[in-house]
Amino acid sequence: MKITTSMIVVGVDGSPESVAAYRFAQHELAQGERYKSILIVASLTDPLGLGNDDAVDDARAAAMRQHIVEAVGESDLQIEVRSGDPAHVLAEVSDDAGLLVIGKRGHGGFRNLVLGSTASSCLGIAKCPVMVIPSTFENSLTSELVVGIDGSLSSHRALAWAIEEAAGRSVNVELVATWRRPHLWEPVQGSPGHYEALADHELEDAMSSLDSKGVLVATHSIEGHPSEVLLSRSETAGLIVLGNEAHKGGRIHAHATAVEIASHSVCPVVVVP
């Protein structure tokens, strides 16, 4: 099957979290002309642990398809079953897709372990935007979209993605840049207002080249850590959108921030590579 940017790929294994992801993908499909179809993808691991792709025989694949049909409660589904690690299977299949949607799963006391290994890995390796859906989220397509901007190219791509999404939903966008004062042990650069001015500049730079497509965009420069600021916004937002590379702090730091926000956000989160 040819995967195109008009297709939504959804990871479904029959769990309540994955079914919630599929339901949200259906809402995305209904928004307009951006997406045309949904492909459900499931993975089966080699039962002997030998890394043998042929281990997914027809019987096991058919059983998985039937399990998904029963969990979703629909029979007219496009389902592809592959062998391998779930995150790598989803990333590979969605390589040319418009959107990858996955459910949020995972528990534990460590903040970076709450998301679940598949979702966390997908945020780091997928080449298309990844949407993470909380299983308890009730679809709200009328709330504004909140976008985190930090000067990186991926955050600018996140803003462009959010504008397209907001236009389809007929909602507004809030563009947020964060800043913080240096800790006592960190060197101080410039005047007391230097850090806030940098955030203001990031907002101005993002807006200067933006095609808003008629979407109302409000900008806010807010003191605080990106995770804390965006998570507070998730309580009322319809969607949090952010990039996965960093202008400040490096790739690893950016991925950790994306995982933390996706782990604890009240609303769905989209991470744009």
Overall 3D form = elongated
Strand element count: 10
N-to-C order of helices and strands: EHEHEHEHEEHEHEHEHE
Helix content: 25-40%
CATH architecture annotation name of the largest domain: 3-Layer(aba) Sandwich
Quote the CATH topology of the largest domain. Rossmann fold
Query: Number of helical runs?
Result: 8
Decide which structural class fits the backbone.
Answer: alpha/beta
Strand share of the residues?
A: 15-25%
Tell me the distance between the termini: 24 Å
CATH class of the largest domain: Alpha Beta
Q: Quick one: CATH superfamily of the largest domain? A: HUPs
| Estimated radius of gyration | 19 Å
Number of domains: 2
Give the biggest beta sheet.
10 strands, mixed
Q: Could you report the average pLDDT, rounded to the nearest whole number?
A: 83
Walk across the major sheet and give the strand order.
Answer: 3-2-1-4-5-10-9-6-7-8
Low-confidence stretches: 106-114
